[in-house]
Amino acid sequence: LYIFEPRYREMLEHALHHHRMFCVTLIKPSCPEWHAPEDFFHLATAGLIRACVGRGDGTSNLILQGLQRVRFAAFEQETPFPIATIDPLESEVQSSVKTEALGAKVLELYDKFKGNGRHFPRKVARYLSDLSDPEMLADLMASTFVSDPLRRQRVLEELSVNQRLRLVIQYLHEEM
Fold first, then answer.
1. How many helices (H) and strands (E) in the chain?
2. By C-alpha distance, which of 121, 130, 157, 129 is closest to 142?
3. Which CATH architecture has domain 2-89?
4. Residue spans of alpha helices (H) in 64-160
5. What predicted TM-score, i.e. pTM, was given to this entire model?
6. What residues pair up with 44 in beta bridges, in sequence order?
7. 109 Rama class: left (phi>0) / alpha (psi -120 to 50) / beta
8. Distance, CA of 46 to CA of 71 (rounded, Å)
9. Which of 102, 107, 150, 176 has its CA at a distance of 20 to 30 angstroms from the CA of residue 76?
10. What is the C-alpha to C-alpha distance for residues 165 and 128, in angstroms, rounded to an integer?
11. For position 10, what pLDDT does the model report?
12. 83-89 and 60-77 as β-strands: parallel, antiparallel, unpaired?
């Protein structure tokens, strides 16, 4: 993640000096930029800052590991950046033959993407071949291969893993 805006620089500085946690959420399409909490979606992913490299110009590159879906419950601070009280959201996991079939379909679509000439790092293929968690599969595929941010937000907001897999399948089909 590339941090360059002044308020996000302050947010990063705060996170690095406290708990190394950072939430990234999507600004609503009706708002050209963020001014108040109503301007962005209140369901996001809480992430742990795993690495941060500061640059001489004040910008930073960081590796953010997504840990948990969260809903912003209240805001303790709104400026210069929001600090929220969060509620964790748990996925509804229905481990079943249907779940396995949906996961297999997602992997089949990934293979079609590769067959259509798209090039992905070998690490992605190796990671996917070892991945047995349907929830992680849905989230990884959505964040990596679904280009529309509103569709990625829809996947993020879906708590049912089976429905999340269905959405990923639908969106991947439409992007082919």
1. 6, 5
2. 157
3. Roll (2.30)
4. 97-115, 122-130, 134-145, 149-157
5. 0.86
6. 70
7. alpha
8. 9
9. 150
10. 15
11. 92
12. antiparallel
Q: 86-113 b/e with 16+ CB inside 10 Å = b?
A: beebebeeeeeeebeebbebbeebbeeb
Give the count of beta carbons closer than 10 Å to the beta carbon of residue 124.
Answer: 14
- Please state which CATH class domain 97-175 belongs to: mainly alpha
- Please answer whether residues 44 and 23 qualify as being in contact, where contact means their C-beta atoms are separated by less than 8 angstroms: yes
Res 34: pLDDT: 81
- The residue extents of the domains of the chain are 2-89, 97-175
- 146 versus 114: the higher-pLDDT residue is 146
Whether the CB-CB separation of 158 and 166 falls below 8 Å is answered with no
**In whole angstroms, how large is the CA radius of gyration of the chain?**
18
CA pair distance 144, 124, nearest whole angstrom: 10
Task: Please tell me the distance from the alpha carbon of residue 87 to that of residue 48, in angstroms, as a whole number.
Answer: 16
